[in-house]
TrEMBL record:
Keywords: Amino-acid biosynthesis, Cysteine biosynthesis, Pyridoxal phosphate, Transferase. Its cofactor is pyridoxal 5'-phosphate. It catalyses: O-acetyl-L-serine + hydrogen sulfide = L-cysteine + acetate. It comes from Thiohalorhabdus methylotrophus. This is Cysteine synthase. Pfam families: PALP (PF00291). Belongs to the cysteine synthase/cystathionine beta-synthase family. Pathway: Amino-acid biosynthesis; L-cysteine biosynthesis; L-cysteine from L-serine: step 2/2.
Length: 295
């Protein structure tokens, strides 16, 4: 019988059968991170950051966590905080989907909403102000915490290497906090340097939850540009249509950032003659029902 924390990770790789470059010996595999207990790839760093903070004595019985989030990290932190017995306040933009807000509250989190026009930058600023006003609280700071990418270095990338039997040639990840792509890139650079690491970012004017092109002043401190071999710009409309295609044509009900990742995977597939392209599906489509994505 497993504890909840032990159910995080070892998510399946699913091969796309109908969406692909066509006529080429190129396989597209997508890692279904929505199969984690709280429903997203962020379960991994949430557990890693909390356990390591406990080891360092930063989190103690009775501690309260304050964390800025756009959604999935907050949900994951709320789940792990519930299991480990911590109070948690999550700071997020007011225009986050209602599903995200309800899930956080279901796990017992308190929410602090910030103006939509300030986006995540305003959310980060508000969380920092709250920490200054409450020095006993703990901010795990997913944007600067090395325990975020560490979770992917220790587990996500090795799982991909294992499950492809070492055949992966390209790794594609949407870029938000950049924890996933940084941790996986570090692993591949050390153990399989032939693997090309590709990041997906929104094109100018596009708004894709979970994918960001950060202003320089707010660039996550865990991000190292030199560890990403290529960055592909993804248009919002293309990501939305791909998410719908994945449901209709592949039976995969995924989130918008997964649609963006697959758009980037297809661009990679078109540029090569053969290979195994692995992408990350960060979450499931049920977090986007109120947004009209699948209307």
């Amino acid at each position: 019988m497993a504890r909840l924390e032990e159910l995080i990770g070892n998510t399946p790789l699913c091969e796309l059968r109908r969406i692909g470059p066509g006529g080429k010996p190129v396989r597209l595999l997508i890692k279904l991170e929505g199969n984690n207990p709280a429903g997203s790839v962020k379960d991994r760093p949430a557990l890693s950051m909390i356990l390591r903070a406990e080891e360092r004595g930063e989190l103690k019985p009775g501690s309260r966590i304050i964390e800025p989030t756009s959604g999935n990290t907050g949900i994951a932190l709320a789940m792990v905080a519930a299991v480990r017995g911590y109070g948690i306040t999550l700071v997020m933009p007011e225009n986050a989907s209602e599903e995200r807000k309800m899930l956080m509250r279901a796990y017992g989190a308190k929410l602090e909403l910030t103006p939509a026009e300030r986006s995540m930058e305003g959310t980060i600023d508000r969380a920092r102000d709250m920490i200054e006003a409450d020095p006993g609280a703990v901010m795990l700071d997913q944007f600067a915490n090395p325990d975020n990418p560490r979770a992917h270095y220790e587990a996500t990338a090795p799982e991909i290497w294992r499950d492809t039997e070492g055949q992966v040639t390209h790794f594609v990840s949407s870029m938000g906090t950049t924890g996933t792509i940084m941790g996986c890139s570090r692993y591949f650079k050390e153990y399989a340097p032939h693997v090309e690491v590709v990041g997906a970012q929104p094109t100018e004017g596009s708004r894709i939850p979970g994918i960001r092109a950060w202003p320089e002043a707010y660039l996550p401190r865990i991000y190292n540009r030199e560890e990403v071999d290529r960055i592909i710009g993804v248009d919002q409309a293309a990501a939305e249509e791909m998410a719908r295609r994945l449901a209709r044509e592949e039976g995969l009900f995924l989130g918008l950032s997964a649609g963006g990742a697959v758009v980037a995977m297809l661009e990679v597939a078109e540029s090569i003659d053969e290979g195994v392209v692995v992408g990350i599906a960060p979450d499931r489509g049920d977090r986007y029902l109120s947004t009209g994505l699948y209307a």
